[in-house]
Amino acid sequence: TSLLVPVKAVVSTQSTGRLFMEMCEVPEAKLELIKMLPKISGATRKRNFEHHKHLLETVYKCLPMIFRRLTKNKVKPFINDFFDGLYYALKSDMNLLRAAAVECLQSLSLLLGPNILGGRIEMTNYDMLMYVKSAYPETVGS
User: Fold this and answer.
1) Whole-model pTM?
2) DSSP track, 42-107
3) Chain centre distance of CA 82
4) pLDDT tens for residues 92-108?
5) Which of 85, 110, 119, 134 is deepest in the core (most CB within 10 A)?
6) Inter-residue contact 32 to 76 (CB < 8 Å)
7) Long-range contacts of residues 8-14, Cβ cutoff 8 Å, at least 24 apart
């Protein structure tokens, strides 16, 4: 049973993330879901529990679709709040987390445009901008 606890935590996290993403398709739910984005971004900054990387992987896998479904104009005020966790995920030693973060970064670049994404990252975390420019230069403008 000791092996089941981590599996349950991971499955529960994945299910919750996917449910949130699917709920974004329901027009009546969109306003309430947008109000929940700060709680999700806050969770990406918590690293004081064993399976935090699985949570981050799920969030960054689902975030591009969540942002598209809730529409760019509605989510733009919240995007910067996800950068600290995204930076942490991009530098992670966990391959699945890093891959989810790269895909999220690429999606944000397509959603906002590389120059705007680069400017937002620079305002929030200059070290992240330098890292992204060297590792994934196509995602941020010059």
Assistant:
1) 0.85
2) HHTT---STTHHHHHHHHHHHHHHHHHHH-HHHHGGGGGGGHHHHHHHHT-S-HHHHHHHHHHHHH
3) 6
4) 999 999 999 999 999 99
5) 85
6) no
7) 9/51, 9/54, 10/51, 10/54, 13/51, 13/54, 13/55, 13/58, 14/54, 14/58
HEC string of 101-112 equals: HHHHHHHHHHHH
Q: Among residues 93, 8, 17, which one has the least CA distance to residue 59?
A: 17
If one compares 67 and 51, the residue with the highest pLDDT of the two is 67
If 0-12 CB within 10 Å is exposed, 13-18 middle and 19+ buried, where does residue 129 land? buried
CB atoms within 10 A of CB 24: 21
The predicted pLDDT at position 4 comes to 46
Residue 13's pLDDT band (cuts 50, 70, 90): low
| Residues 91 and 132: beta-carbon distance below 8 Å | no
Q: What is the DSSP letter of 140?
A: S
